[in-house]
Write a structure and sequence with these properties.
binds ligand BV8, 266 residues, single chain, elongated, 11 helices, 3-stranded antiparallel β-sheet, alpha/beta
C-alpha cells in the first residue's frame, strides 16, 4: 500500500478511535476564541507525576494539606520547602512532551499573535512556555519562583538545590515557593484573565485535569454557561465528564498531535 493510502487509512483510524474527533475538528475550525485548561495530566508524559493518579500521584504519598497549605508550611517550613525543592530539581530534568508542543502549534493555527487563544494552566512546571506557548495564565503559580515570607520579594531560582531548609532570604526572612496552596487565594490578575477568557470563548478544551480543584475546575462551567462547546482530553473520566460536550479519551501527548495534524490539513 503506498504511503498516501497508508496515511489516509491511519487518518480514518483516528475517526474510529475517537468518535468525537470530527466534531472537535469542526468546532475548532469555526472557533474565533479558544480557551484551554490544563492540569498535571499534560505533564505526565514529560515524567512529572500527577496528584491523584493511582499510586504515582503525589497525594497518594503525602497529605496535600500537610505539604501544600499555609498551615503545613507554618508547622514545618523545612519539610515543605525541601519537598518543593526536590520537585523543582525533578522538574528541571523534564522537557515538554508532544502534548505541550501540539498546544503551542494550536495557538499559532487558531490565532497567531492575536491572543484569541488563552492557555490557562494549573501546573507550576512552566513546560507550556518552554514548548513555545505564548498566552499562558498560571492559576497556581510557578515552582521556579520563590518569595521572601517577610517582604514578599520574589525571584526566579533555576539553580541547584538550596543549601539549607527553609532557605534563608537575603534579608533575614525565609523563602517559600510562589505557588498557590490550599486555602490560599489565586493571583487576582490570573483568575480575572482566565475567567474572562472562558466567558467569551467559543470552544474550551479541558486537558489532563481531574477537575477536582476549585475555583480552576469551575472554569469549565463558566465556559459552558456562556455557550461554549466543551471538550475533554483525558484517558479517564473526571468529575467534569458528565458536564462536558465532547470527549477524546486518551493521552494528551497522543491525541493533541492528531488534532493539530487534522486541523492543519485543509
Ligand atoms: C481557594 C499548587 C479560597 C501547589 C495546588 C475545604 C477546605 C479548604 C479549601 C477547600 C475546601 N473545599 C474546597 C476548597 C477549595 C480548594 C479545593 O478545591 N480543594 C479540593 C481538593 C476540594 N481550593 C483551594 O484551596 C484554592 N484556593 O479556594 O481559596 C480563598 C479565597 C479568598 C481568600 C482566601 C482563600 C487553591 C487551590 C490550589 C491548590 N494548589 N497546587 C502544588 O502544585 O503543590 S492544587 C493541585 O491540584 C495542582 O495545582 C493541580 O493542578 C491541581 C488539580 O489537579 P490536576 O492538575 O487535575 O491533577 P490530578 O492529578 O488531580 O489529575 C490529573 C488528571 O490527568 C487525571 O484526570 C488523569 O486521568 C489525567 N491524565 C493522566 N495522564 C494523562 C492525563 N491526561 C491527559 N494525558 C495524559 N497522558
Amino acid at each position: 500500500m503506498d504511503s498516501n493510502k497508508n496515511e489516509s487509512s491511519s487518518h480514518n483510524d483516528h475517526y474510529t478511535l475517537y468518535p468525537d474527533l470530527s466534531q472537535v475538528i469542526k468546532e475548532l475550525r469555526n472557533a474565533k476564541r479558544v480557551a484551554i485548561l490544563t492540569g498535571a495530566g499534560i505533564s505526565t508524559e514529560s515524567g512529572i507525576p500527577t496528584f491523584r493518579d493511582g499510586l504515582d500521584g503525589f497525594w497518594s504519598q503525602f497529605d496535600p494539606l500537610e505539604l501544600a497549605s499555609p498551615q503545613g508550611f507554618a508547622a514545618d517550613p523545612a519539610r515543605v520547602t525541601r519537598w518543593y525543592d526536590e520537585r523543582r530539581a525533578a522538574i528541571a530534568k523534564c522537557q515538554p512532551n508532544p502534548g505541550h508542543i501540539a498546544l503551542a502549534k494550536l495557538e499559532q493555527i487558531v490565532s497567531p499573535n492575536k491572543n484569541l487563544f488563552t492557555l490557562v494552566t494549573q501546573n507550576i512546571d512552566r513546560l507550556h512556555q518552554l514548548a513555545g506557548s505564548k498566552n499562558v495564565v498560571e492559576l497556581h503559580g510557578s515552582i521556579w519562583e520563590w518569595r521572601c515570607t517577610k517582604t514578599g520579594k520574589q525571584k526566579e531560582y533555576r539553580g541547584g538545590p538550596f543549601e539549607q531548609y527553609p532557605p534563608p532570604s537575603d534579608n533575614g526572612g525565609i523563602l517559600r515557593p510562589s505557588v498557590v496552596w490550599f486555602g490560599e487565594p489565586l493571583p487576582p490578575d490570573a483568575w480575572r484573565t482566565a475567567e474572562n477568557a472562558c466567558t467569551i470563548c467559543d470552544v474550551m478544551l479541558s486537558i489532563g485535569t481531574s477537575a477536582a480543584v476549585y475555583p480552576a475546575a469551575g472554569l469549565i462551567d463558566i465556559a459552558q454557561s456562556n455557550g461554549a462547546t466543551t471538550i475533554e482530553i483525558n484517558p479517564e473520566q473526571t468529575q467534569a465528564t458528565p458536564r462536558i460536550d465532547l470527549q477524546l479519551r486518551g493521552a494528551a501527548g497522543v491525541i493533541l498531535p492528531i488534532v493539530v495534524d487534522h486541523l492543519s490539513r485543509s
